[in-house]
Amino acid sequence: MNDMGFMRVKVFRFDPTKDQNPYYETYEIPYEKDMRVLDALVSIREIHDCNLAFRHSCRRRRCGMCGMLVNGKAVLACHEAAFSDMVVEPLPKLPVIRDLIVDTKSYEQKINELRPYLERKKAETEPELIKPYDMLPLRQLQTCIECYLCMSVCPVLELGWPGFAGPSALVQMARRALDPRDLLERTAERTDNNFVDCVSCYSCVNVCPVKINVLEDAVEPLKAQRQKKVIGRWARFNSVFVELVRDRALVNPTVWMLKAFSIPVLFNNIFVGVRFLMKGKISLKSKNVPNIEDIKKIYKATEVKK
Amino acid sequence: MKRAYYPGCSPKSTTREADYVSRKVITRFGVELVELEGAACCGAGEIRSTHPDIFSSLNARTLAMAEKLGLDVITICATCQLNLAEVNKRIKEDQKVSDHVNQILSECDMKYGGGVEVKHLLWFLLDEIGPAKIVSEISRPLSSLRVAPFYGCHMLRPVELLGFDDPDSPTSLKRFIEICGAEAVDCDGKTKCCGFHNVASNSKLACQLTGSYLEEATAMQADCIVTPCPLCFTMFDGYQKESGKLLGKTFHIPVFHIAQLLGMAMGMTWRDLMLERHIISPKGLFEKLGWV
Amino acid sequence: MHRMFEDVMETDVLVIGGGLAGLRAAIEAHDGGVKVLVAMKGKLGKATAAVCAYHGAAVGPWCDADDTKELHLKDVIKCGGYLADQELCKIMIDELPERLIEFERYGLFWERNDDGTIAPYLGSGHSKPRTISTWRRQAGLSMIYALKSEILRRRIPVLEDTMVTNLLIKDGEIAGAVGLDIVSGKVFPINSKSTIIATGSHSVMFPDYTPPPECTGDGPAMAYEAGADMMNMENVVYIATIDHPGTWRGIIVPTLFKIGGDVLHLLNKEGERFLERYDPENLEMATKDVVARSTYTEIIEGRGGGEEGDTLYADLAHLDYEEANNKLGDLVTCMEEMGLDIRKDYISFRPAAHETLGGVRINARCESTIPGLYAAGSAIGAIYGNDGIPGRGTGHAIVFAQRAGKYACERARQISMPQPDQELLDAEFLRVVNILDRERGLSPGEVLKKLQETMRKNFWVVKNDEGLKEALANIIRIQQEDLPIVSTSSKSKRYNIEWQHALEVINLAKVAEMMIKSAMMRKETRAMFMRDDYPQKDNVNGPQHIVLRRNKNEMHLETIPVKLTYVQPEGDE
After folding, report:
1. Hey, which chains touch A, using 3+ CB pairs under 8 Å?
2. I need a surface site. Which of B289, C130, C277, C294 has the fewest CB within 10 A?
């Protein structure tokens, strides 16, 4: 920002029908106190190029249309503060329609595959009596605006891992699967692929503009729900882990692998196992842990707590 | 200075080097460590999703043990740090959660009042020991060493629970590396995920994530990778060859836990650093540095 | 050279606009067993004004035992200055409870009390608590989400990024419309048996507005051109919004409901809670027109702060912070982003245009005066009068959308597919593509700015004849001199947003003309419609609707006395 109260903004430009390659254009615009990235884009349109293409609608984190990258960070343009020399680019890994507008069909498809509508019987009396407590898991999820910022930063989606639904799709799925009114066996009928491959990296949580804890409020409850019905490749490892903590306080990964006894997993890890063994990293001994009965008591107490 | 010490599970089995060297390094600064013997696993990436009450109670119990000693906790693993910080925050901020968890803890005559702070070794060193004091213990600055930092997700996100560093442009590891006298190599993937929590259910995915950073670090000509998390360490060291195979490449880039990097700068021996246990041997690196 | 129509689409019911009304109408028509097509200017479930709506209000099982639909009707009509179409209003009040409850079939969850019953609260202007909402007062977002999921379930086709530029007529009936696909630049006809206009309001003609930028009055402009009756055009609801930065100038500072038992305080630059002078009984919970009038007056009389003396202040310090954060989440977060803490700092605000209440005149079947054309939502000439009691926006959209869908479907089942006049089609095609072909003239943005400036200056909270005359002269000049030379800087057909803006500003100018002429005809001050040259109600003629329609190339206006069937003004109301 220079003394005259101006700032520079570098913007990604691309018209696939006219340009061979994308290019960047730097614009100088007046700086207004507390301005947002969207203000900067509107200013560029007014002063320099009325054809700069970007989406926006509500201007207040409700419609989710203005997702883009600012200095590499996925943000909503209507909410993110503007600063001088910022670089504005479209969301990554999606086909660019023009300038900052991308085609989000692939994300929408992922969501549509998970049947994004409630399947329910008509209530006997309307409105039904529903305790707020029963809908608590949905509360924060209800504020999702489907801006797809979480989809843009998910490393598993970035790798193109087949079948993985992605954070936003899993939020939309959780909004029905965790709804007591829904009749479908949503998690049971999907394949493991859809959610088990979440790596719990919290990238989605970090980027969500409406502060939804996608991992803990959507993905993990879905995994847990599935585990009750279907023993997929993850479920057994999970239950063995939980038992090991009860019995030994600490989890020895070798013991965990052997107890869960999945032939494909053991097979995949055989070379790693041999190398670990040769370096003395494998031991099946477990130390005597003081006060281990405490843990058993805790497990018992939580069983009763329903 | 006295602190409670919670090493977690992995440093007690496959990554004993992290436990051993961390303790050596901390006590060098005159800090007395009291290990929380009997504390259970923090739950890793498993327990919270299916047994949220067990997750909260086990971690609250660990914190209660520290509270009884009147000591704050040092962790040496990113996931332990996150899980303990999460339970700690929920108990401190929500009376209902505190009451619920303490009701469960009362079964083993324990109670947690929210009086403990949990800090990862990296933050403890930078914040409470301070760069000046650390440098004063360094006898062998790691100059000419190019070190690629890998934070590990659970050191950075979610920022509401951790908050020591900016999750998108963190600098703590860079500062740490520079305090040790080395050059920090700035890789874009330093804030990404190693995939450890999926290595059992989908080792291919985990190796792809690990391999992606190994590729970047190699391309940036880093001599080694340093990480504050023994789980990331397990991926980068233990699964380096697998990741290479998956991506059709050969990697040879040694990996260190932050305690080991500092230990190296403090002049600790090969044996003391337990480097024999590494799958990817740092021998070549030591020879390059002219050390024995 | 442009290729003439590459695609021709055909459907039974065409819904123009994919907001709260549009989607609800589409679902209703689809469930009636006909083919439906929705054309909208943005993305499904996103480009709507409703996403920011707070609540719905109706007399349902959640109300007090002594609350009645008659009372609700009375509140609405009184708030609307007795300009409501009372028959239609009664229909709205009668059907609203069911329309709101129905959303729970689509997955929405109205906030509940601990005993499982829906939890209402008091909205300003209501005599009893009947307003209901979802978590964090985001009823609009939840309603749109629920409707979107039902659209997806039924696989109703939605043309996104498509602007409908004009209606098509055959033998005096609406036979479809012409669409512009903004992504590809294709112009194509859509033949339809019934057409529902659900294009929302036209607040974009003011520089500060709360609805999204898509609200450019396309529906009313097209309906007018087709010869339909328009009503209530002179009415606009003004509301307090944050004053900066530009992006946030549409964020409402709501005095519509209490937060934790108390309402936020509005202060002038002297720190005075000025509503004590305008409505000492209700204070900030007064109806929108009183709040608008008072904020306007305070500023005009020099008690506004800020650099230009045009801002006032909202004080939230005395509210329960957790409650404020929950119910006014957007506001609190925006303040914090700007480094302000609502527990200590004031929020500066100014009046802005909230919703425009003029639009297509409809009957109980949502029919306009042209066969085949229906309307729903904010594109209708508001049947509740000239001010907005909380809940009327969402309520009025869903009740009449359900009716529009139903009756549009009925018509579609009875007639055969019309074929629009080829001449009209060709003319419209040329009208649309000519803009792209024009040599560099004025940019649509420049013309819009001029339009906004004159409307802001002369069509603001309080109007007068001199101002209205100036506005009219400006709008006529804009239409005659500026619009014919509006062009786009880029000739690319790929997401040429300027092209869309050029078409929109033509609509806005036409609608603005209708608004000004109607305002000139209303020589009184009544509820939200205020004039300083006629500061009293016209008690001689009583409440009158102002209706206008196109007569060849002229705008013909007339007044129709309001039928005070159910509720009559009391005293000097």
Report:
1. B, C
2. C277
DSSP B4-39: EEE--SGGGTTTHHHHHHHHHHHHHTT-EEEE-TTP
**Segment C446-497, tens digit of pLDDT:** 999 999 999 999 999 999 999 999 999 999 999 999 999 999 999 999 999 9
Report the alpha-carbon distance of residue C277 to residue A180 in Å, rounded: 50
Range A12-19 average pLDDT: 96
Alpha-carbon gap: A7 to the closest alpha carbon of chain B (Å):
22
Residue with tokens 């990293």: A281
Q: Is C354 within 8 Å of C237 (Cβ atoms)?
A: yes
Each residue's pLDDT tens digit, C189-241: 999 999 999 999 999 999 999 999 999 999 999 999 999 999 999 999 999 99
In three-state secondary structure terms, C83 is coil
CB contacts under 8 A, A 253-282 vs C, are none
Q: How far is A210 from chain C (nearest CA, A)?
A: 10
With H, G, I as helix, E, B as strand and everything else as coil, classify residue A134.
Answer: helix
* Residue C458 contacts A, CB cutoff 8 Å: no
**Residue A4: pLDDT band with limits 50, 70, 90:** low
A295 contacts chain B (CB < 8 A): yes
A203 contacts A211 by C-beta, under 8 angstroms: no
pLDDT at A306: 44
Q: Is C377 a residue whose pLDDT tops 60?
A: yes
pLDDT, position C1: 37
Q: Is B158 within 8 Å of B181 (Cβ atoms)?
A: no
The secondary structure element, H or E, covering residue B184 is strand B183-184
- Cα separation, C86 vs C83, in Å, equals 8
Interhelix angle B258-265/B16-28, rounded to 10 degrees, is 50
Of B201 and B233, more confident: B233
Cα–Cα dist C306/C196, whole Å: 45
Whole-prediction pTM value? 0.95
Residues of A in contact with C493 (CB under 8 A): 17
Contact A67/A92 with Cβ under 8 angstroms? Answer: no
A242's enclosing H/E stretch is helix A233-248
- Residue C228, Cα to own-chain centre: how many angstroms? 18
CB C254 within 8 A of CB C237: no
| CB of A274 less than 8 A from some CB of B | no
B268's tokens? 């600790």
CB contact under 8 A, A200 and B37: no
DSSP H helical ranges for A3-58: 37-47
> Would you state the structure tokens that stand for residue C232, as one six-digit string?
């209530």
Query: Please, how many CA atoms are within 13 Å of residue B29, restricted to the half-sphere of its CB?
Result: 26
SS (H, E, C) C404-437: HHHHHHHHHHHCCCCCCCHHHHHHHHHHHHHHHH
Inter-chain Cβ pairs, chain A and chain C, closer than 8 A = 175
In single-letter form, the type of residue at position C63 comes to C
Q: How far apart are CA C570 and CA C506, in angstroms?
A: 42
* ipTM greater than 0.90: yes
